[in-house]
Specification:
360 residues; alpha/beta; Rossmann fold; 9 strands; 39% helix
Length: 360
Amino acid sequence: MSLQFLFEHRPEVTGAENHAAPENAATGLCHLPDGRRLAWSEYGSPQGYPLFYCHNHAGTRLEGLFFHDSARTAGFRLIAIDRPGLGLSDFFSRSDQNSCAEDFLQLANHLGIRRFGLLSWGGGGAFAFALSLRAPTRVMFQISLACLPFSLALDRSALSWHEGFKRGCLRGLLQLRCRLMRPWPGKGSCRQRLLEQLGLPDRKLLERPEVMDLIAENFRESSRQGCRGPARDLASRFSRWRFDPASLQVPVQLWQGSADTLVSEACTRMLARSLPHVEWHRVPAAGHLFFLRDGDAVFRSARKLLDQQAESGLDAVIRKRGANVRTSVRTPRCQPVHGNAACRLPLPSGVVARSPGPGF
């Protein structure tokens, strides 16, 4: 199966369950000051309120396809970014949550986006929190779906052990695992591996062929450059969070399915107790992939939060968070990608590039 299928197929479903890509989906490469390239794709409404998406561990920007229709309906411009070494973004050996936050801010500056929201799934939550703490006067809200607060679930001694173990051999083991799993034989193998880990609600969702097609393609895209990018990104789940969630000034919404077998509800509740401005949304009879069924509800909640802030006055909201927070980001040189131009890696077929939309 090629990526062309994903960008042309229109499954016979409606509402939030239609995950076909928009015909004008934009994919671009941003040249950062250190010479690396950062890739992003856009979904939802091109003129909507900007919402940066932090994908799951070892995922890619293609996950934005899951949220395209819900984002468009709610009036959000979803900007999904490949982290270093994944998809089309260059590998960075010193990548961590804080460096990724800096990369995202540089991209926001180029796109002319002054303020924006954040959406994350699974392991992408740690990177979203780092960005919210890095730029509290620019991030208006954060929504984390099935967040994985692994470092909060371990005591200090256990976490130190995991840090040392990771440096010694974890990345090597994960690289070996990625090599053994490549090439992915097909969606049948993909489905079988997922069924072994997921609960009944998620298994029912995996019966839909368009969902399995995208999950399998997302996995292949993540290892486009080899195994070291996915291995490093997976290893980051064992890393200590180098920030204190209790100091976060940005309002956060935590969403989790009650039947999630991959993320412990106890860990997520522990994270919620550490956040000063948080809303907890527990989705009944839903699993790790609950947003495939309830994506519209997530984005309606985001729109409501944004409207409440607008009613309160953005200037007052920013002053409350501490307008004296300095954000110094060098403006990168970015360009949209047309075909294979200006890209050392081949772009997926079927992706149509366009110039970045207006900022906010």
